[in-house]
Amino acid sequence: MAAKKWPKKIPLVPNFGRFYINVQSLADCLLSIQRKHYAYAFPKEMISSYLRDVILKLITDKILDEETFCKLDEREINMLKILIKRSHIDDTLLYKIADMFRDKRELKDRLISRLNITKGEIIAGNNNPSLTSDLASILNELRDNKWIEKKFYDQIMEDFT
Length: 161
Description:
Blueprint: E1 15-16, E2 19-21, H1 23-27, E3 30-31, E4 33-34, E5 45-46, H2 49-61, H3 66-69, H4 74-87, H5 91-123, H6 129-144, H7 150-160
Antiparallel strand pairs: 1-2, 2-4, 3-5
């Protein structure tokens, strides 16, 4: 796997609050966080390219990229929250993450509720074509955000369309 080319303004081991992040391993989606004198602050862990991009944006511009953040799963969001909290990089980011995480969870709950209501209407006998297109759009959004498995998506699409 070829490593991603980084802008020249990023040092090899940039400061991330109280910690240092190894950029070479970050390029390969391996999160390696160290304290002073190369003692590891966290265990090394493989991460997604989305989390890598969020961390890189925090290092370079000191801002949280909301578009990329929305693509993170819950495990990576929690990992990022712990990293920001322990590094003391910026406490206001924690509130922003909490708000975005709450919004993401509310969206998921609303979509699942709409999915169940739409499925119930179709089962009850309402065969309006707009319901099947609404069901497909809800399922597509759930699948695109990786909130449902492809097998579940395929099964519902086969049963209701």
